[in-house]
Structure formats: structure tokens, C-alpha cells
Design goal:
494 residues; two-stranded parallel sheet; 20 helices
Length: 494
Amino acid sequence: MKDFSSEIKASSVDTDILNPFVHRLELDTTYDKLKTAFLTVALLPLRLALITGLVIFAWLLACLGLHGLSDEDLRRTPLTGWRRKIVPWLCFVGQLTYRAAGMKIVIRGKQASRSEAPILVVAPHSTFIDGGIVYILGFPSTIVRRESGLNPFVGKLINYTQPVYVWRDDPNSRQNTIKEIIERATSKEDWPQIMIFPEGTCTNRSCLITFKCGAFYPGVPVQPVCIRYPNKLDTVTWTWEGPGPLKLLWLTLTQLNSSCEIEFLPVYKPNEAEKTDPKLYANNVRRVMAQALGIPVSDYTYDDCRIISKAHSLNLPNAFSILDTHKLRNTLGLQNNKIEQELVQKRSHKIDEAVDFNEFARILRLDPKDPLVQQLFKIYDKTNKGYVDMEEYIFTVLAIEKANSVLDLLAIAFDVCSMHSSRCLDIQKLRKVLRFSLQLDAEESDKIFLQVNRDSSEYDSISLDCYSLSAVKFPDENLMPFCFRKTADTYRKC
């Protein structure tokens, strides 16, 4: 079978068109706002009471079924006898919980048996509500963090699925998880099917991101399961950038009705090439699911989420441009060569701020004929004039690689923008440093410069001292630790 991974190209990541980790949700009309306010008072308390009662009842059933069993018992053998007969009751109560929340479940296709498909591959994964699909699928085993199973309340329900636990503190966790998935999927015993969300994180369902290979290592048939939420107002999608879970839960429970569609696709049986190549197997199953869903595939991965999360935690703008930069640098080999870091450490003169494409390629020692180099240049050619700010590019690269705090961002910005190792900056350069690191405009930067220099008008530059405990008052009247200290050395001219 053809390897469809070639369909996934770097150019498929267009931040202006496709951002799978972003979800925008606003109540735009007065009608929606009034309806939500009314149902918050009239309907929400009733639904919360019903859901709470049903969840407690399910928890009691799980406690009964797990009584006398240790964690080792759950990992060693599948449930049997009266304990197994509790599973349909748990599924029934779980489905009632969905109905109590106003969620209508529509099922298309037929679920395969364990003998036909030991593993259920579910996508796209877009919300914490997806976890409730276990009640529709007959309580299959899940892949969860060990910490979740230790929760005294939710942990009981999780443990009843006899999950495959991921031990984050174990350096061999990944290998052990894969080993257990293979053992479960190929076992002759009557284990539950294994349910896996191969994307590994939540997206906005605009595409299918790269599938992780865990479900495909056993080389056994899998059944793809597609999830859709065809609602006018999308109150369920929970991504890296967008509404939090409490807001989503509130808005979902204050809708009169919501819908969830679950479609069972035909069982996918791997050929010999796919059995020996889990990545090929994963890509081909993803292609089938994307076609059924009518959405594209994307080369975003779970690891990309860490880049986006770090950019957000550092309050850096254009997180997806930063991610594209990271991916292109990896492809071009810049990640290993660390050329940008070398430029800052070894230079004895200022890096030209505005460089054209040929100079950009020369500085980074790249082939100007490579279309990926042109793509990297285009990300920072924001005005389409054929020039990029080299200092901005280098700052972005080093910030994602090295910064863990605001002070780190400031230090990196000073390094990149200063002319000498003393890291002295005039007012123009300070504007740039504060724009890069704190997104301050020129007016705010000038106020800070004057505040630091208020008693030393003879000096026209400042430098960085990260060990200072002094504070600078920002224009928004907030006080925060800042890295300026007034000493003779600090204010010597560059």
C-alpha cells in the first residue's frame, strides 16, 4: 500500500488558514446572551443535580465491582463473573448522564467485536467530553496517566476499564506502555477492547494531526471511530488556546440540546508492510479517517503543543509562526547546528537589522535555492518588502530554546540587540528589547527609560543586571521585578 505520509508537507501548516490548537467561542447575539442567562438559572441547577446523582451512583457501582481487587489484579487478568456484569450497568448510567446534560448521541455504523478489532482508534480528539465515549463503546480499556487512577472519585471509574497506565516518573514508561498494549491486543484472554486517541492531544477538529504510533505497534486490525459535534454553537472544543473547561461545561449545560455523532468505520486490516512499519500504518489509517470526516491531515504533532504552550506561557505573540519556525529549522538542520546562538556568542559587531533574502540565507549558511529557506524568510518578511529583521528572528529562536521566564526573555533580547558584551542599550534599542520581550510599545518603553534614568540625565544608555532586586513602575501602574540597576557601570556609555 502507498505511503500517504508524502501528502503531509511543511506547506500544509498555514497559520493563517489552519490552527488546530485554537478555538474561539463568543456569544455574539443578544438572543444567545439572554438565553444563556435564563437557562443558567432555570436549567443549569437541575442538570447539575441529575449529573451529580448519576455520577455518584456510577461511582458506587464501580466501588462495588472493584472491592477486593488490587491494582495488580486489574493488570493481570480481565474481569469475570458478576464483576463483568456490572459493566452494562455502568454504560447505561453513563449514557443517562449524557442525556441529563442535554447531549444527544447519534451512532452510525456498527462496532466490531474484540476478535475482529482489538483496538479502537478514536479521532478527532477535541474535548474532555470525548472520554465519555467509553459508555457507548462498552467500557473499553483506556490509556491514562497513573495519577488519574489514584483519584479517589474519578479513579474508580477509570480503574474499572482496566486501563493501560502511563507512569510519567518512569524513564521507561513509553516502552512499557507499548509493551502492555501489544500484550493486551494480542492476548487470547477476554480483555476489553483498547480505546486510543492517537492524536494524543485536543484539537479544534479542523484537521487530523499526526497520529502517535502506540495503537499501531501490535500490528493487529483496528477499527477507526470518528467523532463529530455538529452543533451551531461549538461549546465543547477545548484546545490549547481558547475557553477553559469550566466555561465550556457551563455553556454546554445551558444549551437546550447538543449533539454528538459517533461513526464506526470498517475494520482496517494492516498489510505486511504496515505490520512492520507502525508509522506507515498510522498515516494510512489517519488518511481513511480524514476522508470519512471530510477534513485534511496536518503534520502538527503532540510535541508541537509544547512549543505553543511555552510561547503562550511566555506571552510571546504569533505562537503559530514560532511553531512554523521551529519545524522549518528542524528540517533545515538549524536546530542541531545552533547557528543563531553562535551568531550572538561570537559576533564582535552588530547584526544588521534589516537583511534581504540572500543575506539571510548567507548568515544562516543555507542554500538560497531551497524553497524551505524561502518559506522561513517569508514568516518574518511581515511587510512583504523583501527584508526581515534579523534580530527579531534570532530572538524568537533563542527565546523558545532557552527562556523559562520573563527575565530570561529580557536577557536574551539584550544579548541579541546590544552591540557589545557589556550589553549597553540606547533608547532606540531599549524600545526593541521591550517590544520583543514584553510587547511594550515605544511610548511605554520611553517612559521606562526615563524612569530608570531620572537622576542620571547625562547618560543615554542602560544595561542589564539580572541580579537586581529593584523595580520599575510600568505605565499600567503595576510593579514588577525588573533587571535595571543604577550604578556607574550600568550607565556608562556603550
